[in-house]
Amino acid sequence: MRLLIVEDNPRLLKSLKMSLEDDGYAVDGAADGIEGQEMAEITIYDAIILDIMLPRRSGLEVCRELRKQQKRTPILMLTARDTVEDRVKGLDSGADDYLVKPFAIDELRARIRALLRRDAPSKTGLLEAGDLILDPATHSVTRAGKPIDLTSKEFALLEYLLRNPNWLVTREMAESHVWSYDYTGASNLVDVYIRRLRRKVDDPFEIKLIETVRGSGYRLQKPE
Question: Exposed, middle or buried: residue 161 (CB in 10 Å: 0-12, 13-18, 19+)?
Answer without folding.
Answer: buried
